[in-house]
Amino acid sequence: MLTLTWTWQNADIAVATHEAGGKQAYRSTEEALKGITCKALVMPTRTDQYFTPEHSEKEIKHMPNVIYKVVETIYGHVGGGGSGTKDDHRVISKAITEAMQ
Question: How many domains is the chain built from?
Answer without folding.
Answer: 2
